[in-house]
């Protein structure tokens, strides 16, 4: 369709400090280093996408994304923006992996396609807004007293569930959870995320069994993702349900984990799956297998998290949302997008497409390239 031909593509770096370092077992993060993709079509539609590359998870950085995006832009320019699967196939032919920057292009293209259809992205993908989305709030890895204070504050702020970063020694992690439970009480929903920090199955099983008494909903990625063949043994021995995160990047990973009966839950992230196209396949696989699903993210702004929120409305099996990182930013560069309400409620914007853009003043100051 001539009107939906991609006329111009712009790529920007989005750099924002965090209020305080965000620490996980893979290391500390002090600032947001993201990439924003803007796609314009001949008929005047403008689509926005964002990725938050993560060196230790998807092997990408703001620099690699900025460069690889310049491989994609001249090839995608002139193509039909509505050929979503075709665009992803083109990017896959250009370079293997690089799921983070591919997701920024995929989100921007879905924004255009949904605007063209006159629908919000979730409706364009077959979803609905009948359910209310709630985000958890994450306690960064630190000393027990600091983690307890943060958890108490998040509980007082009304977040319905608290997620705790772990991944240290058995003694240290038990001390952290014991302190948090002493602060928030025995009943407030509590989830944990080791980010592969326990490394081996035996060590993970020992820690999970030691945490059995603390009423924990689930545990994300307890062992090194390379050891995914061992995850089913962890699941069988763990009193806490297991969620795959780093080991579940695309639909092929999800299919393997399901076949292995490796986990009860999957965590879907657009930055791991290369965007909506593959994320939806993962969701369908998980739903068919009877798994509970979560949609999360990295350090996306409210723009990237708005895309994640649209995804969360496309499947009834998606019951958990981890959309809290924009609350850590020192500045909010997003116009429109999701809003955080009382009780951890996440409210999507009305109207067609993504419903979020980046402030023009922020884009003008950013390192940028145009095609």
Automatic annotation (TrEMBL):
It holds the Pfam family MR_MLE_C. Signal peptide: none annotated. Binds 1 Mg(2+) ion per subunit. Residues 144-241 form the Mandelate racemase/muconate lactonizing enzyme C-terminal domain. CDD domains: L-Ala-DL-Glu_epimerase. The keyword Metal-binding applies. GO terms for molecular function: magnesium ion binding; racemase and epimerase activity, acting on amino acids and derivatives. GO terms for biological process: peptide metabolic process. Mg(2+) binds at residues 193, 220, 245. Gene3D superfamilies: Enolase-like C-terminal domain (3.20.20.120), Enolase-like, N-terminal domain (3.30.390.10). Its cofactor is Mg(2+). Its EC number is 5.1.1.-. The active site is at residues 165, 269. Keywords: Isomerase, Magnesium, Metal-binding. It comes from the Bacteria. Belongs to the mandelate racemase/muconate lactonizing enzyme family. This is Dipeptide epimerase. It comes from Hymenobacter glacialis. The lineage of its organism: Bacteria, Pseudomonadati, Bacteroidota, Cytophagia, Cytophagales.
